[in-house]
Design a protein that fits this description.
The protein is mainly β. The protein contains two helices and 20 strands.
């Protein structure tokens, strides 16, 4: 291929060049090793039904305690909540925690002691830095529809931070067929800035869609399936399942039915 053709085809041309036959005697590049996953099945989670709130706890939370499941790295809480219409949490306090809310269905009304008031809908991600102390309420404003959400707590990089709040929309098209960065320590790629060393990705995959994520040495990954079903190597993950790894390598995730999930890349 001539130089002008490389310039014309850009990355596609470069890919074509890399696909050329190997020189005689050259070795095939090694296939990246797939990390081993440890699975946390949905049915094994803690569960509580308070009437207006049906909630599942991936890690120990409230009255649910399991010494084997106290969190993973900075990840302390993943609660899957179903809140009835016209119900919710009254004002209550938090401190020294990064709290991320990811709404899957319905809408969640938020108010806090900093004066923020908003409604969080599917595709919107909320980050609340509790820091030295914040009070907030969460309420389902609908009269006829439940709200379904994931609430995530992450330990901050240090205590005593100034409380803060941010909310951002990420279109379904931006999350479809890819890993879309929605929160990160440095706020790169227009993600929400979060005060801990984690990169949080959201993805919506159609059936047979595939994404890949490289786990670097010294990093750790948690996958949380919100809907559908994923194949991760020999492991099948369904809605509510979580999986973790601390091994470096290439994670290949394929949707065996339409799926939505979060991937945490943690220090």
């Amino acid at each position: 291929m001539e130089r002008r053709e490389v310039l014309k085809y850009g990355a596609a041309g470069a890919g074509f060049l890399f696909s050329a036959p190997l020189a005689q005697g050259a070795e095939e590049p090694p296939v990246p090793k797939a990390p081993t996953l440890v699975v946390r099945r949905a049915a094994e989670r803690g569960h509580a039904n308070h009437g207006w709130l049906d909630t599942w706890h991936t890690f120990s939370f409230g009255r649910y305690y399991d010494a084997r499941h106290m969190g993973f790295r900075a990840l302390r809480v993943i609660n899957e909540d179903f809140i009835d219409p016209a119900a919710g949490f009254p004002m209550h306090p938090h401190n020294d925690m990064e709290i991320v809310t990811y709404v899957l269905e319905g809408a969640l009304q938020h108010r806090d002691s900093l004066g923020n008031g908003s409604v969080i809908r599917p595709g919107e991600v909320q980050r609340m830095s509790a820091g030295t102390g914040i009070r907030h309420s969460e309420f389902n404003p609908s009269r006829d529809r439940r709200v379904h959400l994931l609430q995530i707590w992450l330990l901050p990089e240090r205590q005593g931070l100034k409380p803060g709040y941010a909310q951002q929309a990420f279109a379904a098209t931006d999350r479809s067929g890819r890993l879309k960065l929605v929160a990160s320590r440095d706020g790169r790629d227009q993600s929400l800035r979060i005060h801990t060393d984690v990169s949080l990705y959201a993805s919506i995959l159609p059936r047979d869609g595939v994404v890949e994520h490289r786990v670097e040495t010294g990093r750790h990954v948690w996958i949380q399936v919100a809907r559908g079903r994923l194949a991760a190597g020999e492991v099948t993950l369904e809605a509510g399942d979580g999986a973790r790894t601390s091994e470096p390598g290439l994670l290949r995730l394929k949707a065996t039915q339409d799926a939505e999930f979060l991937l945490f890349d943690l220090a």
